[in-house]
Amino acid sequence: MKEDLIQFLWEQKFFAGKELICTQGQRLYVAHTGTKNTDAGPDFFNARLKINNLEWAGNVEIHVKTSDWYKHNHQKDKRYENVILHVVYEDDVVLNDKDGNLLLTLEVKKLLPPSLISKHNELMQKKTLIPCEKVFVKPREIKLNLWFERLLIERLEHKTKYINDLLLKSENNFEETFYKITAKYFGQKINAQAFEMLSQNLPLIVIAKHKNNLSQIEALVIGTAGFLDLHFEDEYLNFLKIEYEYLKHKFNLQSLDKSIWKFARTRPANFPTVRLLQFALFLYQNSQLLSKIIKAEKLKDIMPFFQLKFNHKINLVALHNNSQKTSEKEFNLGISTIENIIINALIPMLFAYGKIHNLPELSDKSLEWLLQVPAEQNSVIKGWEIFGIKAKNAWQSQALIEQKSNYCNKLQCLRCIIGKEILLAP
Question: Where are the domains of the chain?
Answer without folding.
Answer: 3-112, 113-169+374-426, 175-345
